[in-house]
Amino acid sequence: MKLINLTLIIIIFSTSCGQTVDQNVSSNTLADSSTIKQDAEEENEEPDTRELRKEYISNYSKIEKLDTSFTDKEGKQIHVQTKYYCLFDNAIFVPKQYVWEDTTKTFTTHNYSQDIIIVIDKDTIFNKTITKADFADNLYPELKNYAVLMFPNFSYDKEKNVFDFGYSLTIPITDVGDGWRLIIDKTGNISKTDR
Fold first, then answer.
1. Strand ranges (DSSP E) for the chain?
2. How confident is the model at residue 121 (pLDDT cuts 50, 70, 90)?
3. Cβ–Cβ contacts within 10 Å for residue 35, how many?
């Protein structure tokens, strides 16, 4: 009798454990598939332009600096310093057709600029402030009027001995813009190219 009871308990225990495991697996599968579906929906959602504008405005006071030194292929010491900052000039009035979250008002914002200093073997070959005006001759009217200088980046082409500064001239909180590069040679001459 004790053997039958022990066998019965083992069977019930193993059967119930199997059911619990199966239930957990199916509920986890449902949770995983709903999470995957939710993640996919979030990826397809448009960005919240109100949040983008808040983030953009919060960056007005942010200053981005670069201070780097390296040696060129001729063994000359190169020192590059940059400073990217907001001008707080209230000079850009983005018209309502570009203000996606509230098309009844314009958006007033500011221009940005970047100071660039390049020194080669203690000789300053370049010391200038770059603004949107440096690209004005090449911009579409909409960008000339409403875009700001954004997303500065720098690289040095050691083979060509040139300094490459890239920018996006973009209407804030939109995807309307154009990429530009300033190429500065070792004598300080500038050429502009679009990306």
1. 64-71, 77-86, 92-94, 107-109, 112-120, 123-130, 148-157, 162-170, 177-185, 190-194
2. very high
3. 10
Q: Is residue 108 part of a domain?
A: yes
- Which residues span the domain enclosing 91? 49-194
pTM metric for this prediction: 0.73
The tokens of 32 are what?
């995983």
Which residues, listed in sequence order, are joined to residue 20 by a DSSP beta bridge?
none
How far apart are the C-alpha atoms of 155 and 179, rounded to whole Å? Answer: 15
* CA atoms of 82 and 150, how far apart (whole Å): 14
Q: Looking at residue 167, which CATH number applies to its domain?
A: 2.40.128.510
- How many domains does one find in the chain? 1
Q: How far apart are CA 181 and CA 151, in angstroms?
A: 11
Rounded Cα–Cα distance for residues 101 and 190 (Å): 39
What does the alpha-carbon distance between residue 28 and residue 136 come to, in Å, rounded to a whole number? 58
Q: How far apart are CA 173 and CA 168, in angstroms?
A: 13
In a domain, 6, yes or no: no
Question: How far is the C-alpha of 166 from the C-alpha of 53, rounded, in Å?
Answer: 23
Within 10 Å of residue 80's Cβ, how many Cβ atoms? 20
Q: Is the pLDDT of residue 177 over 70?
A: yes
